[in-house]
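Hi L.,

You mentioned the student needs an example of a multi-chain input paired with its predicted structure. This one should do, with 451 residues in total across all chains.
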Amino acid sequence: MKKLILLPLLFTPILQASDACCSVAPPPETAPAYSDNSLFHLQASFLNTDGKEVKLADYEGKPFILAMFYATCPTVCPRLILDVHKIEAKFSEEEKTQLPVLLVSFDPETDTPANLKTFAKSWDMDTPRWQLWSGTAENARTLAAGLGIRYRKAPNGEISHSAPITLINAQGEIELQLAGPGVDSTPLVQQAKILLSTPSE
Amino acid sequence: MKIKIVLLLGFMFGSASAREATQQIDIPAGTFVPLMKNMDPIPVAAFRLDIHAVTNAEYLAFVNENPKWQRGNIPRILADEGYLRHWESPTHPGEQAPLNAPVTSVSWYAARAYAEWKGQRLPTLAEWEVAAAMLPEKITRQQILSWYAKPLTHPLPDTLSTQKTTVGVWDLHGLIWEWCEDYDSLALLSRAGSDETLSALFCGGAAAGAADPSDYAAFLRYAFRGSLSASHTVAGLGFRCASSPKEPTS
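Structure written out for the whole complex:
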């Protein structure tokens, strides 16, 4: 018992000593100048369907539509993807080329790049404008946190999750979020058209 | 004796000591029974958990080595304006944050970055609950509940100062709230929307749907976690690290 009481006392000088040893702080890392609320700050990398490492900041400079899903989802995700298709139908071909769609998987274990490639084909997704990413469970959780998405994988493999469709602006900020499939998408379409008509620096 | 040797080595290797300082302990495999009856029990594999929450001293070593996580350098999306607000300066905890007290007012992103820096991770919610269910001897649920009812006093007491569980993990109850990797995974839908799981917790009849209505402290933890966003910082919310065993334990 004495040992445990002494422990904090003994730690103090050591940690102070370690502080002193490192008083010369390493030079600050040159952080990209993203805005305070930019999702590009999230430290998470993913793999696209070609197995190439990608990150959200790759979209810097252009607005895009972002949603999270998993390919074996029996209920919500098919509706979610249909809704994104419906949203797209409200844009001209020219506008569509400037508004990429990114779907990121909650379930990287099952949704390997190869599986997602097949999935994209089965859904007739306009790749590479539509991107499907997976990565690690940790990175999926990081992105979900940034988007305010909650999810839980049940022991049987099914994932309960919220399913918002998010419009991200060229700076990586959440411009507008639809709560989920079936929600009126007019505000998102209108906002996206405003972003597309505003030239970015 | 072992502790003395670790301390001695820590002295010799300077800053590395802070990274190695926190001892982890084996938590045997168990089953987490979620609060609500309609959720299946979650099997939890054996894992390792810090015996105490991350201290201000340990967190100081982290921000010294990773200036981008210092107060003032961190973008709002990764931590709100309360981040380390009780520290005297970005690199000096000061009187309100004693070196051996748990670090609090850190966001989930910050807690995870610290864990990653240590080559570890945050415990999952199920892991944390399994470890916390091994109640210290002589501690009753009523005592835990009375801690939740008591306002925190600052500066916070040191770690290793309350109670330890039957397997030797300290302060899981009675010192601070703690982040988990999937802290809000039991509260489903989006934060802005209505939330059946969570709203049920605020309804008087909700206990009828609970797996164990007597564990009211668990209700409080769920409600609290469900109210958090990853960038939030709270004066009584800190964390500890976990890791998976390198080899399966027999």
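You could point out the following to them. Residues 2-21 of chain A form the longest helix (20 residues). Confidence is low (pLDDT under 50) at residues 1-24 of chain A.

Best wishes,
N.
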